Amino acid sequence: MIEFEKLRVVIGYEFLKHIRRRRLYVILALTLFTEVAVLILLPALQGGYPDDVMAMAAILTVGPALAAIGAVFFSGDAIAGEFESKTGYILFTNPVKRTTLVIGKYISSTAAVILLITFGYSIVAISLLSIYGSIPIETLESYGMALLYGGSVISITFFFSALSKGGMGATVITLVFLMVISPIVDTVLMLTDTPHWFMLSTAGDSIATVYGGYELFIEGFVPLEHIDRLPFELENPDARLTSLAMAIYLVIGFVFSIIFGNRRQLV
Amino acid sequence: MQNTVTLLTVMDEPIVIENLSKYYNHFLALDNLSLKVKQNENIGLLGPNGAGKSTTLKILCALIRSSSGKVFINGQNVAEKPEQALSNIGAIVETPEFYPFLTPEETLKYLGRLRGMQAGTLKNRILEVINLVGLEKWITVKIEKFSRGMKQRLALAQTLLHDPPILILDEPGLGLDPRGVVEFREILEDAGKDKTVFFASHQLTEVTQICNQVAVIDHGKLMAYSSIAELEKQYNSLENAYLELTGGVS
To answer: B45 has which bridge partners?
Structure first.
């Protein structure tokens, strides 16, 4: 049996795992809840939706972005879980390369993230069509960015999963990296006028800024004439550079997760 | 010439362990262990806790790497060609767990497909092994509802699924009730007639009923490798042999 056929088998059963686990549906529900909250709260608190469809589209990206980050919750135990929960004692005694197992797990996690992000963008599309009667073409670009961001989040999670003792540890480390370390470093770099396109939080922002920059996003909530001045210069991320950054995170995280996953022993 | 002779020996024996050593940081778990298991021989690997039994089995199953030395399964170097070596074995190592969201049928289908078994053969074989281990009523129930003993039965089913020529078993009776232990022993006795069984256990009774040979290890060293009859003759009983060889009797 060639390794490619084994890969197909691994992908199938790993995807089944995602389908049967509650966390996929929790993230789907959170995505839906976030979008519904925006759709209800925005008119309730400021008397209506923004005039510009682009501003509304940018605001609605919070749902799919949340879905991409949610990937952490079902990728954290992808590698570490086999060691922590001892399922590796069954799986690894089969004639299948560890590389095949990691790739299969990665592809199935990616498929689940695509499902989540697509769900988020479906809500965005339906909402924009209902409110404005049109969907900006930039939504496609934002969708592509969100997929790339989701892929890089999975790669980083896999990397930590290959190194961590347990799935929970990998999940927490990845979330701290994504939600705390990266934004702090990003802000410091921005305040000191240093290039920061390579930070994953900047890359994540580009999911929304493709519609017209930070200003448009902020204006969706508060008209800019109501703000005296921003505390620092808002430099919009360059979509090409942030795409490159995300691709680098995706490839490096993925390759290292395979290397460390292969080296790891079931002691 | 010497290499050719070595290779022929390695190809002859289903399990060959050569000068195997394993360090966990500074702790020496296996100390230059060498052992050859002949075809269709059922060997009990005996030794106290920490003697190196599980470490030996894990290296044989490519779950961990040795610090030095080699192991061969049906002539395949496990470190160099793990997939080829593993295709010849069915193994239970430690207390394995299964994906809780799958049923026994789905689990065995997954593992069978990973081993390249054809759909038709696999379906029949799954029913056979499930019946053999007495899980027929639980075949479509998710494993999250299973007790330790039921998981151990499923573990045995997956070792026999692809009808491998070699079984590597680490305390397979762990977690089973007395009836389960007896049923397990009968299954292994039957399977052991035309398979090579390498079986680590603390239970001397279990070993005497399944195995015809025993290897006693202590502190990672091979203390004895002989037939049970021979050891009983030399030490009056297998229990005495075990205690004396592992330092339990002064």
So the answer is: B200, B215
Q: Is B102 on the interface with A (CB under 8 A)?
A: yes
pLDDT tens digits, A73-98: 889 999 999 999 999 999 999 999 99
Residue B84 has a pLDDT of: 94
Return the bridge partners of B200, or none.
B45, B170
- Prediction pTM value: 0.91
Residue A26, sorted as left (phi over 0), alpha (psi -120 to 50) or beta, turns out to be alpha
Local structure of B147: helix, strand or coil: coil
Alpha carbon separation from A205 to A33, A58, A102, A172 (Å, rounded): 21, 10, 29, 21
**Chain A interface test: which of B89, B113, B152, B170 (most A C-beta within 10 Å):** B113
Q: How confident is the model at residue A237, as a pLDDT?
A: 86
CB atoms within 10 A of CB B35: 19
Beta carbons of B64 and A266 less than 8 Å apart? yes
CB of B68 within 8 A of CB of B19? yes
**A-chain residues near B114 (CB < 8 A):** 6, 9-10, 94-96
Please list the residues that pair with B166 across neighbouring strands. Answer: B89, B196
Residues in chain B with CB shorter than 8 Å from the CB of A17 are: 99, 101
Q: What is the ipTM of this complex?
A: 0.91
Q: Distance (Å, rounded) from C-alpha B214 to C-alpha B204?
A: 10
As a whole number of angstroms, the distance between CA A35 and CA A155 comes to 26
Min Cα distance A96 → chain B (Å) is 6
Please give chain B's pLDDT, 250 residues, in tens: 555 555 555 567 999 999 999 999 999 999 999 999 999 899 999 999 889 999 999 999 999 999 999 999 999 999 999 999 999 999 999 888 999 999 999 999 999 999 999 988 999 999 999 999 999 999 999 999 999 999 999 999 999 999 999 999 998 888 788 888 888 888 888 888 889 999 998 888 888 888 989 999 999 999 999 999 999 999 999 999 999 998 865 4
Interface of B with A in 115-134 (CB under 8 A): 115-116
Instruction: Tell me how long chain B is.
Output: 250
Distance CA A159, CA A93 (A): 23
For residues B182 and B134, what is the distance between their CA atoms, to the nearest angstrom? 12
The CA distance from A179 to A174, in Å, is 8
SS3 A209: helix
Find the helix or strand (DSSP H, E) in which B156 lies. helix B148-160
Q: Strands B89-92, B166-170: parallel, antiparallel or unpaired by DSSP?
A: parallel
Q: What is the Cα–Cα distance from A24 to A116, expressed in whole angstroms?
A: 8
Q: How many CB pairs under 8 A join A and B?
A: 76
What is the per-residue pLDDT for B250?
42
Q: Is B157 on the interface with A (CB under 8 A)?
A: no
